[in-house]
Amino acid sequence: ELIDINLEGEIAGVILDSPDMQKRVKQLDYGVDFNGYFNAGVMLINNDEWRKNNVTQESLSMINSGKIFRYADQDVLNILLNGKVKYLQRKFNNKTTLSVNFDAEAKNIDNTIIMHYVTPNKPWYKIFKARYFDRYFNVSPWKNNRRFFAPSPSEIRLKAKREISGKNYSIGVYHYFCYLISKVFRLRF
């Protein structure tokens, strides 16, 4: 479906960011209209237009200029590509977060084509419920690669607390044990 999108005359196909994010960015006053602020995590790039407009060089120049951009490359790309993009449907960049405290994937994702995990909690850590990621990971070329248990000991501790409060005592104790081992011996497993 993405491959059939016509980007003639546009540098990229992008997906609008959330209204909350657009409000936050407007306050930064970069001098462009941020009603069209997009999330740079998923972009369909027209390579010819990208090169013709020197987007890579211009981006690096802005990032290395010393000016602080709150959302780094995403802000820079929004500034450089302002008015030069085609807006695509949200199904191509369904942003979600992962936490040991809830199942973010439980929300309605019927039409999702690309799921974008936007926090440091990524689905390749086994501690998070990420059944869609797991399904595709298990049939991917990386299926035999090692997946770490958690990004940090504190996530293991949070999982233990959640399980105990949900009366899943054996699972909670197991996670507390993992947490203690990871803290005391500074192990990552």
Structural topology:
Elements: E1 12-16, H1 19-26, E2 38-45, H2 47-52, H3 55-63, H4 72-80, E3 85-87, E4 94-96, E5 115-117, H5 131-137, H6 153-165, H7 169-184
Please give a quick description of this structure.
This protein is 36% helix and 12% strand. It has 189 residues and is an alpha/beta fold.
Count of alpha and pi helical runs: 7
Structural class per helix/strand content? alpha/beta
Instruction: Count the beta strands.
Output: 5
Radius of gyration: 20 Å
Percent in strands = 5-15%
Give the overall pLDDT as a whole number. 91
Distance from first to last alpha carbon: 39 Å
Global geometry? elongated
| Fraction of helical residues | 25-40%
Residue ranges: pLDDT <50 for 5 or more in a row? Answer: none
Question: What does the main sheet amount to?
Answer: 3 strands, mixed
Which strands sit side by side, in order, in the main sheet?
2-1-3
Q: Please trace the helix and strand order, writing H or E for each element.
A: EHEHHHEEEHHH
Describe this protein's structure:
With 189 residues, the chain is an alpha/beta fold. The chain has a domain at 2-91. It is built from seven helices and five strands, in the order E-H-E-H-H-H-E-E-E-H-H-H. It has helices at 19-26, 47-52, 55-63, 72-80, 131-137, 153-165, 169-184; strands spanning 12-16, 38-45, 85-87, 94-96, 115-117. The strands form two sheets. It has a three-stranded mixed β-sheet with strand order 2-1-3. The chain has a two-stranded parallel sheet with strand order 4-5. Helix 3 crosses helix 4 (72-80) and helix 6 runs antiparallel to helix 7. Pfam families: Glyco_transf_8, Glyco_transf_8C. Belongs to the glycosyltransferase 8 family.
